[in-house]
Amino acid sequence: MAYAKKTSKVNEAFQKLKNDLAAGTAGNAYIFYGEETYLREYYLKELRKKLVPAGFEEFNYHTLEGKDLTVQTLAETAEAMPMMAERTLIVVSDFDLFKLNEEQREKLIAFLEDVPPYCCVVFLYDTVEYKPNRTMKKLYKAVTDHVEAVEFRPADNSDLVVWIARRFKALGKEIDRQTAEYLIFTCGGLMTGLVPEIAKIGAYAKGRAITQKDIDAVADPVLSAEVFRLSDAVLQGNYDGAARILGDLLKMQTEPIMILAALGSQLRRIYTARMAIDSGKDKYWLMELWEMKSDYPAKLLLSAAKKTTAAWCADAVQMCQVLDRRMKSEKGVDAVGELKLLLVRLGAQRR
User: Fold this and answer.
1) Of the four, 149, 252, 292, 306, which is 20 to 30 A from 60 by CA?
2) How many helices (H) and strands (E) does the chain have?
3) What is the CATH architecture assignment of 223-350?
């Protein structure tokens, strides 16, 4: 089965923003949202550089906090003419457009339909989640017609590998594709989280070429990477290793219920990989099933699945589900003790 990369209007909006910036034709209104805060902040700075001349920020760059903000205040700010510049930029943080009362919604619709041509407004969703409400038909239409909603998603794996290599090059280091993919697997695929990890690894590494040992020595792994190591230790019959990883997670104040949820999810993925092997499917089937951005985690899953059977996977997933229900429904459950017991039972099933 061929693995096809999905495209959407979200990607088109992001590409249009890049094109607008390159051409110097920024629009009048944007919504910036999404989990990749590094990219969001980067493009906000680029927009500011394009529109606001240095030294004239006080007159041409305005920031507003969404809490207690009224559309009247926003409109008044937008009416301020630019000084020694062609445009003004207004950044409105956490102003939930679809939570306004009816009066404010009507005023917002009127504002969006007539944003001054010299003004650019960015509605920045940071701590508030952007949730457009289609039932508010007039407002939804106004936002769709007059505002460019740009979601900042995690970068595609190929782009992320190139970006990682560029960051290390700036530190006088090199990293090959496989090691970069290991870094992504270990530290997650968000640039926001990778920036400090790259800095740490670059400072630690003695040689020019970054190695997996350099990453393991100083990087802070994300929960999914630690849980993969945990499940792999179980599959290898290494209870001491699994217990040690569990202990490290608990020392990092990770909630037992979160560890259990991540472990259950990982075991379900291994189960599907085992089924893929048994039915003659390949890594591309897994990539499509789990919406993976590269084949690296798919290959790891297939490698893990080769160490076990479909029957063991089914039992393991069921044990996680049973414990999950107990933790959520019963009072006084020793969550840490139950997790340790679960590892023992999973190991015993392997024998």
Assistant:
1) 149
2) 17, 5
3) Up-down Bundle (1.20)
